[in-house]
Amino acid sequence: MKNLIIASTSTIHGSTYLEYLLEELAVFFKGVKSIVFIPYARPSGISHNEYTEKAKEAFIKINKNLKGIHEFSNPIEAINQAEAIFTGGGNTFLLLNQLYKNKLIEPLQKAVQTGTPYLGTSAGSNICGLTINTTNDMPIIYPPSFKALSLVPFNINPHYLDPIPDNKHMGETRETRIKEFHAFNTQPVIGLREGSWLEVKGSSIVLKGELSARVFEYNKTPYEIERNTELNTLK
What we know:
The chain has helices at about 20-30, 50-60, 75-80, 90-100, 105-115, 125, 175-180, and strands spanning about 5, 35-40, 65-70, 85, 120, 155, 190, 195-200, 205-210, 215, 225. It has about 240 residues and is of the alpha/beta class. It has a single domain, classed as Rossmann fold (3-Layer(aba) Sandwich), CATH 3.40.50.880. The strands form two sheets. The chain has a seven-stranded mixed beta sheet. A four-stranded mixed beta sheet has the order 6-7-10-11, covered by helices on one side. Strand 6, helix 7 (about 175-180) and strand 7 (about 190) form a beta-alpha-beta unit. The chain is globular, with a radius of gyration of 17 Å. The protein starts with a strand and ends in a 10-residue tail after the last strand.
């Protein structure tokens, strides 16, 4: 049975890394001693080691050991034998490219489908959708495919931002960009605001956190859903 937390972000304003989620994660990872961390997204270009150390500091607070997947001699076996998995945020194109390079797409899909707990934040959440076409990231590298893990039946837009009234910025809003996506694609997109996450248990997909989320469906007007809404009917 699938068991995931798909979070918009690792850090909300005024808090430390994963602080807002730690109480939830202590329950989510109950019974787990060690977590395999995938640092491939490398936010701000930091090294795999630096990123892993940052994540370790958070998980020590809930008495969990963390080991970067780059520290294993065989990354596929690391996933196959993992008690739990955490994929951090950063650049989604870089993350997905590295997953393809290390032949980890199918092992990750199999692990999650068979019940290995999975936590994703930002880019690590983006890859849970059908494709990464609705990421906000700069395409700094070209992965073999934009197809992602397909752990949920829609795309995700982490860090979703609403238009700011009277803002002088002339660039596209997130809503505009997702409408552009729907000019060529039909799958739904969930705009996840900061501090929100999706809780996936088996076939159930429920919005958690304090804020609503915005849903974009092909040829439909975008709409809001409130926390605790079930999303498994979206296709």
